[in-house]
Amino acid sequence: MSTSTSADTEPDLKRAIGPKLLLLFIVGDILGTGVYALTGEVAGEVGGAGWAAILLAFAVATVTAFSYLELVTKYPQAAGAALYTHKAFGVHVLTFLVTFAVLSSGLTSASTAAKFLAENVIIGFGLDWGPGAVTVIALAFITLLALINLRGAAESLAFNVVLTLVELTGLLIVILIGFWAMSQGNVDLGRAMVFETSEDKTVFLALTSATALAFFSMVGFEDSVNMAEETKDPVRIFPRVMLTGLGLTAFIYVLVSVTAVAVVPVGQLSESTTPLLEVVRRGAPDLPVDTVYPFLSIFAVANTALINLMMASRLIYGMAQHEVLPPLLGRVLPGRRSPWAAIVFTTLLTFGLVWGVTQVAGEGTITALGGTTALLLLAVFTVVNVAAIVLRRRPVDREHFHAPRVLPYIGAVTCAFLVGPWAQDTIEYQIAGGLIAIGLVLWLLTWAFYRRGRPPLEPGALGD
Fold first, then answer.
1. Any idea where this protein resides (predicted)?
2. For the segment 64-114, what is each residue's pLDDT rounded down to a tens digit?
3. CA 10, 312, 390, 385 torsion: positive or negative?
4. Poorest-pLDDT segment among 45-54, 113-122, 223-232, 391-400
């Protein structure tokens, strides 16, 4: 089966994205569920010094960002990690695993957002529907996103700008309330300098676990490489914009982390499923933000879920079109031209994640799903850093960004270290392993069905 389109017959994408829009895209993609949902969990690992874990996660993300910058300006195409892996190693199974890991991280991220959104709906509307209500609302939200996806809804930069402003507003409320509480003498800044770990962990291991969890808050910058073909002068713009976006979000996250533990004792913060709402309640008990804030949180994480589910369904569709997954998953809805089979498949997988992880992890579901997202992407980033090292031996005839020589080595080692069992919980390996196993089974069934000598994956087409 030949590919349906060719780079020779399709027009180039319009280069309409300048530095400001790219910066908003990157900041909006990084901001979201991680800081809203996991601030308390990070504090629970290391006490008031959660900001230290955020800074370490920022450092790891930034080192890896340098590798992405070198690769995206060297190969300015939309397929991202799959393209870099394929060019560096040429091993189709490895390319498939990287692609499916990226896809799976989208599903776990969307599941995290759905659970957190459901908890804010319960609080915002003052509902008391029993312990299963959060799961039911989360599944209903995922169904709504699937219906939107089926209509062929696509991400627009204008929509991204609006939701980025909503996300920033929610975080700025926390910071401003913290400053106001400080002016009233109602905070304890000393808590932000205290390391507190569980009895079975050293400070090093606790900080390692907290950094791996905080890494979920820093991911999103890697999605911007898919905008390379639509960015004006990407060689010049991408490096400064991506690094500026990472720096801005890290600065905001550190302020939020310090404010949170200064206003709310660590024990209460780590036990709450809506930690930033606790900060708002305690810091400004007389203001009506306690009613409004849950709805800000809902809008802040809704776009995260929608974008991730759209990305996952398009990846499934692309792999089915190229005979990497069963062709049934490449079916398109007449009229709307949306990939209905891929949307149904990813929706069912997300249902399974939300319901299944809830049965196993209970109140720790959000942490388990967020940690799995970080685990999958850390594994992908390890491969991307190694790919950057390998591809340095293959120069290209175009100007591109050059990362400092040692950084991809540091990125590969640090990301691989954070994938280890000292940084991750067993349940995160189980979730990630289950998702990858599903992908491998589908891939093997497809390979057995076709049995063709043609390379089974052309990653350049995944961005179509």
1. Cell membrane
2. 999 999 998 888 775 678 889 988 998 888 888 998 998 899 899 989 989
3. positive
4. 223-232
